[in-house]
Design goal:
Length: 251
């Protein structure tokens, strides 16, 4: 089965400083892939490059079988959805209006995924709880014909029950054929829905495992790969700006 998206020898960064180096990864239809690493590893930078928001310094991103560069809004029309760490909700618009902004998004489908949103369709986004905002953002991505979901820290600041709901919705969409690449600090939770795992450290790919292998080696992974050591390389500028956590933290 052909991959939905591939990074081939990808190097990318900011202002001449390389953050991610020589990265190879791929996501195929029907699978959830976890992208893990300590704060500053380059996870958000990787997602931004795959989404078309950052141009590679070297290597290429192959999306929909093509290595041509295209910005996020064009990739979105081709079936790519990007849910960033900052909840992408229009605070002055109602829940229903936020859903309508998503091109081809089916409000009924969003309601099936997250019934909690149905009674608050008329409430403005700025008045929603953090969990409701994230359900709205994810529902808007999954409520349209999405081929590939890129998700950055869905669980940020949310209760465990809500995190489980979000990840289960992603897994259900993957079971219907969508591919997903998920950055997540709650490693044990994402391993419950993932099929494969990529581990980044200091901008380089350290390990590629199945989720089953990662579950068996979870203690080792936590201790040796998800902790940022004092002598680690330069931190991801995106992570630094967002003031993220030092262990398996959000980028």
């Amino acid at each position: 089965m052909s991959a939905l998206i591939e990074a081939r020898g990808l190097s990318v960064g900011y202002g001449g400083a390389t953050v991610v180096r020589d990265l190879d990864l791929e996501v195929s239809p029907g699978e959830v892939v976890a992208l893990l690493g300590p704060n500053g590893a380059g996870k958000t930078t990787t997602l931004l490059a795959l989404a078309g928001e950052l141009r590679p310094a070297a290597g290429e991103v192959v999306w929909n079988g093509s290595a041509r560069s295209a910005p996020l809004h064009r990739r979105a029309r081709q079936g790519l959805a990007f849910v960033p760490e900052e909840r992408s909700v229009f605070r002055g618009l109602t829940t229903r209006q936020n859903i309508a902004i998503g091109r081809g998004c089916d409000a009924g489908r969003v309601g099936e995924l997250f019934p909690e949103l149905v009674p608050i369709m008329g409430r403005r986004g700025g008045l929603l709880s953090g969990g409701e905002q994230q359900m709205l953002a994810v529902g808007r991505a999954l409520g349209r014909p999405t081929k590939l979901l890129l998700a950055d820290e869905l669980s940020l600041g949310l209760a465990p029950k809500t995190v489980g709901r979000l990840l289960k919705a992603v897994r259900a969409a993957a079971d219907e054929g969508m591919g997903a690449l998920v950055v997540e600090q709650h490693v044990h939770r994402v391993l419950e829905v993932a099929y494969r795992v990529y581990l980044l450290r200091n901008g380089r790919l350290e390990l590629t495992l199945t989720a089953r292998e990662a579950r068996v080696r979870l203690d080792e992974i936590q201790d040796h790969y998800l902790t940022r050591h004092p002598d680690a390389g330069a931190q991801d500028p995106v992570a630094s700006a967002n003031g993220t956590h030092p262990v398996g933290g959000e980028e």
